[in-house]
Amino acid sequence: MAFYDERESSQLVKILFFDILGINATDLISKAEHRLSESEILKLHFATKRLLKGEPVQYVTGKSFFAGLELIVGPDVLIPRPETEELVGKICSDIESNECSVLDIGTGSGCIALGIKSLRPNWKVSACDVSEMALNIAKRNVERTKLHINLFKLDALNSSVLPEKYDVIVSNPPYIPWREKGSLSSRVIDFEPHLALFVEDQHPLIFFERILHLAQKYLHDDGVVFFEIHESFAAELTALKDKYPIATLEVYKDMQGKDRMVKIKLSK
Ligand SMILES: C[S@@+](CC[C@H](N)C(=O)[O-])C[C@H]1O[C@@H](n2cnc3c(N)ncnc32)[C@H](O)[C@@H]1O
Question: Is the pLDDT of residue 1 over 70?
Answer without folding.
Answer: no
